[in-house]
Amino acid sequence: MTCGTDLRDVAATDINTSAAEQPYTGYDYRYGETDLFEGSIASKARLYTLTFIVAIVIFLAGTFLFTVGPQLFSRGEANAPLPTPSPSPRPTLALATVTPGPPTATRTPTVPPTNTPTETPTPEPCMRQVQPEDTLTSIVLNCGHRDLAIIDVVVELNGLADENSIRQGQIIVV
């Protein structure tokens, strides 16, 4: 089984020849698998490192010249203090002024009164006949009560053992 390389162009070497007798000419790319040659990785790394260092040096030199350069290359006269300017009167401009007019009447929003719901008690006892699928809770809600605390009163009023002991056809007084 081969890896796909062809060694026909590679000269055969004698096993008895020492490595000192053969000069190193670098990597022969005819052997294949050139992407695994470690020597080429080191040379690329050196190139990238050198490029990075040169870029940093150029950046630092430019920053230095930009910040310190104007002070280094300026003439001595420019470093003399400037005379303090004396205040001089400035001309006033005659501009049109805006005079505020009388205040305008603004509408004040009136909040309409809110109706607060009041509980209206049932004027007389509500009497319901228990239908199939009815529960005591559904009967109480159908009679208009929204507070489920009334269920205990209904159980006591109708002489029930508990709220689940109602029968179909029974008349419940709420």
Task: Give a written overview of the molecule.
By secondary structure, the chain is mainly alpha-helical. Among the domains are: 29-72; 127-173, Roll (Membrane-bound Lytic Murein Transglycosylase D, Chain A). Helices cover 29% and strands 3% of the residues. The chain is built from three helices and two strands; from the N terminus they run αβααβ. It has helices at residues 38-72, 136-142, 150-157; strands at residues 127-129, 171-173. A two-stranded antiparallel sheet has the order 1-2.
Q: Gist?
A:
The chain has 174 residues and is mainly α.
The whole-angstrom Rg is 52 Å
At the first level of CATH, the class of the domain at 127-173 is: Alpha Beta
* CATH architecture group name of the domain at 127-173: Roll
β-strand percent reads: under 5%
The strand line-up of the biggest sheet is: 1-2
Low-confidence stretches: none
Q: Summarize the amount of helix as a percent range.
A: 25-40%
CATH topology of the domain at 127-173: Membrane-bound Lytic Murein Transglycosylase D, Chain A
**Overall morphology:** flat
Record field, number of beta strands? 2
Mean pLDDT metric: 78
**Intertermini distance:** 97 Å
Task: List SSEs in N-to-C order.
Answer: HEHHE
**Count of helix runs:** 3
- Largest pleated sheet: 2 strands, antiparallel
Protein structure class: mainly alpha
